[in-house]
Design goal:
CATH superfamily: P-loop containing nucleotide triphosphate hydrolases
CATH topology: Rossmann fold
CATH class: Alpha Beta
Strand content: 15-25%
Distance between the termini: 53 Å
Bound molecules: adenosine-5'-triphosphate
Largest sheet: 6 strands, mixed
Strand order of the largest sheet: 5-6-7-3-8-9
Number of helices: 10
Shape: globular
Order of helices and strands: HEEEHEHEHHHEHEHEEHH
Radius of gyration: 18 Å
Structural class: alpha/beta
Number of domains: 1
CATH architecture: 3-Layer(aba) Sandwich
Length: 251
Amino acid sequence: MSDVAAFTARAAAAPAQMAPLLPLRVRGLTLLRGATTVLDGLDLDLGRTGCTVVMGANGAGKTLLLKLLHGLIQPTAGQIDWQGQDTAAVTRRQALVFQTPVLLRRSAAGNLDFVLKARGKDRGRTATLLDHVGLAHKAQQPARLLSGGEAQRLALARALAIDPEVLFLDEPTASLDPASVLTIERIVQAARDRGVRIVFVTHDTGQARRLADDVVFLHGGRVAEHAAAADFFPAPRHPAARNYIDGKIVI
Ligand SMILES: Nc1ncnc2c1ncn2[C@@H]1O[C@H](COP(=O)(O)OP(=O)(O)OP(=O)(O)O)[C@@H](O)[C@H]1O
C-alpha cells in the first residue's frame, strides 16, 4: 500500500467504535453579540456525508455559526445536537481551519509532530501528511517563512492529522492564487470522498459550485435557504440568495 493510500485508509477507519456525530440537528440557535442579534432562532439539519457550503453576506454570522457548531463559543439560546454527544468530546472529533492560518513557531514538520503527539497519534505520519498537501520539500522550513498558500496547506494537514469526522473551513482560500485554491479544493474533496463531513464557508460562487453538495444561505440571522447545490445555483428561491448569486448588494 502506498503512503497516501495508507493515510487514506487510516483516516477513513478512524472512529470505528465511537457513536456517530451526524446527522446534526440545530434548533432555535440564537447568539447575541453586544447589542446585535447575530443569529436569531436558526434551525439547521446536516446529513451524514458530503460537503455543505455556507454562504451569506459579510456579517451574516457564518464564522460565528462555525464556532458555535465546533463548540468554541456558547449560544445565547437554542440547541446544537451532535447525536447527543458531549460538547468537549465533539470538539475533539472535529477540526476548524481559519482564513488566516494559525501556526506554531516551529518547522512545517514540527507543527505536525506537535499535534500528532498531543493527540496520541503516530508521529510517523508527519511525512505522509506533508506529502499529501504537497509540502514534503518544505518539511524543515520554519512555518513563519511559508507562503500564504503553503501555510494554508500546512494548516489543512494539521487539521487532517487528527482524523476529524467533521472539518470546518472558514474561507480558507480567500487570499490565495488560483493554483493554490485548486490545490486546497482537491485536498478538501479527497477528505470528503473518504467520509470526512465538510462544512465550508466561502464567498466565491465558483468555488461553491465546484465543492458543494448542498448550500446553506444565511440571512437575517437564520437559514434563509438550504438546498441541494444542483437546485440552489440555477434558481435560488430566497430573494436575498438570488441577489447574492446575481452579484447584487444584499442588506
Ligand atoms: N465580539 C463581538 N461583538 C460585537 N459584534 C460581533 C462580535 N463578534 C462578531 N460580531 C458581529 O457579528 C456579526 C457576524 O460576524 P461573523 O464574523 O460571523 O460574520 P461572517 O458572516 O463570517 O462575515 P464575513 O463574510 O465578513 O466573514 C458581524 O456583524 C460582526 O460584526
